[in-house]
Amino acid sequence: MVKFLVLISLLLLWWAMPVQANWFNDINRQVRSIGAVKPLTAEPLTTAELADYPTNYQFERVIVPSHQTPLFVLQAGLEHRDTVVLIHGLGELASKDWLTVIPALAKQYHVVAIDLPGFGLSQGAVFTYSPKEYAKVIDWVISHYRHPNAQVHLVGHSMGAAISLYYASQYPSKIEQLVLVDAAGILDRTAYLKQISKRGMASSELPQGLRRVLARVDNFADKILEKTGTGLDPTKWLSHNESIRNMTIGEQTNTNAALALMEQNFSVLNYQQMPATQLIWGADDQVAPLRTAQALLHVLPTAQLQVIAGAGHVPMKSHPHIFNQMLLTGLASTSIFPSNANVLAREQHSENSSQRIGKCYQESQQYFSGHYDQLIIEDCKLVFIDNVDVNQLTMSDSIVTIKSSRIGMQQKKMKIARSTISATDTHFLGEINSTRSRFDLAGVTFWGESPVFISQESTRLVLSLVRIHTPTHVIRLGGSYVLAAESLESVL
Q: Nearest CA to 209 among 358, 362, 360, 361?
């Protein structure tokens, strides 16, 4: 905390300095001169460095031309044609996280695992460890190590999955298949903080009065977190000047990479061009909650989700047999599965002929599923709408969670007042009119005539992997927004 306060003080001082001050330029020159001294050759690997690796694998440390930085590369199964490239997440173990996976893969595939620059046996790099920069490294690895005419499957875990997702969006033709394992950093960071802070107090065993109180407490905590998403963010100052960043956190590998990951807006990527994608997730992951996978499933055109019951953030270690079986089955599959998003998109103009009306009035907990003509929710806490197709939604003074649903009708309005809504993998049709409400949307698509979302008064939105489809354009957006009396489109 002390270091953080010192850093903030330094940044504030720099911000307030007059233009004619030259001390900052001196630091710039010094940092650049340090950064200019790059090793031209990689140091040989030692026996001690390789002590934890099987001796029958092939190892080398090479210089990556794109960044002139050392890179540790492990290869196994060299006799096989098709290549699987493994990208690790945060932490000191780096490629060692894959040691429970490589033996199974190497029986059928040529395996290439790396330590990303700055991690493991690739230590020594000083640059911004962003998905964009790491994607350049991965592209060189694939080009340099793949067998001629081989198919390439890219597998990433945690931060490595986020990097792999970014790579696939920039170089979709370079890989045959993408596998994302418990991808971290995909959702807007405010949504992420809210998710991991949840109490999980929806148990029906609790008294009704206590459930209502706890729901209000969580709701208040969410309000505080949402305000951080639209307020002053000191970390953005670091991203605006590479020299300051390298001087302060350049060699702090995990901090550098985590900060760069938070800065990447994954909502604006073009997911329609992505290759076939397998999602493998631990059901109990608290680092990258399952909601991330559900949101990705919404935007990826050809994706399939497999969930490992009882697993956390590192399923290949906690459940290696199940994980390896899922991975190998997915890699061998030649079928392309349309995601739920595409299925719903094709059917979005179909009519829901249900006459059923669902109501909730001053209840502490209620569940809805199936087809409805109307849902009317008034003063209800902990309402869950799951796999629902409803033509009309009216909501006031309530706290509602929506998953895998289709809400509304074209050219119709939904009125939501003084409520809190969390929606994942959901389609909204028509127009939403919001008054003093809060929305946390992840993997959500709006369909209709612009504007699709209008705030009548004081609305907060936290958006992750959100799409607006109108007859004339498509908008991809993410981030935190505060609306007065205006439409969402007007502030974009």
A: 362
Beta bridge partners of 302: 338
Query: Could you write out the DSSP letters of every residue in 237-301?
Result: HHHH-HHHHHHHHTT-HHHHHHHHHHH--GGGS-GGGPPEEEEEEETT-SSS-HHHHHHHHHH-S
Task: Please check whether residue 127 is in contact with residue 38, taking contact to mean a CB–CB distance below 8 angstroms.
Answer: no
- Alpha-carbon distance of 315 to 324, in angstroms, equals 10
Query: How many Cβ atoms sit within 10 Å of the Cβ of residue 94?
Result: 23
Strands 110-115 and 69-76: antiparallel
Between CA 190 and CA 332 the distance in angstroms is 37
What pLDDT, on the 0 to 100 scale, is given for residue 337? 61
Coil, helix or strand at residue 461:
strand
40 in helix, strand or coil?
coil
Tokens of 352: 């829901």
Our CA angle for 172, 174, 179, nearest 5°, is 70
Report the C-alpha gap between 295 and 187 in whole angstroms. Answer: 8
Distance from the Cα of residue 189 to its chain's centroid: 9
Rounded CA gap, 10 and 14, in Å?
A: 6
Give yes or no for a contact between 327 and 281, defined as CB atoms under 8 angstroms apart: no
Q: Report residue 149: phi and psi, to 5°.
A: 60, 20
* Beta carbons within 10 angstroms of residue 375's beta carbon: 23
State the Cα–Cα distance between residues 303 and 178, nearest whole angstrom: 9
> According to the model, what pLDDT value does residue 42 have?
83
Cis peptide before 131 (omega within 30 of 0): no
User: What is each CA distance from 401 to 86, 381, 438, 440, in whole angstroms?
Assistant: 35, 10, 12, 9
d(CA 85, CA 145): 9
| Sites in the chain below the pLDDT cut of 50 | 1-39, 194, 196-197, 199-226, 228-232, 234-239, 241, 243-250, 341-347
**CA distance between the termini of the chain:** 35
- For residue 168, the one-letter residue type is A
SS3 122: helix
How confident is the model at residue 319, as a pLDDT?
A: 97
Mode of pairing for the β-strands spanning 406-417 and 399-403? unpaired
CA 133 to centroid of chain Cα atoms? 17
User: Residue-wise over 158-190: b if at least 16 C-beta within 10 A, else e?
Assistant: bbbbbbbbbbbbbbeebbbbbbbbbbbbbbbbb
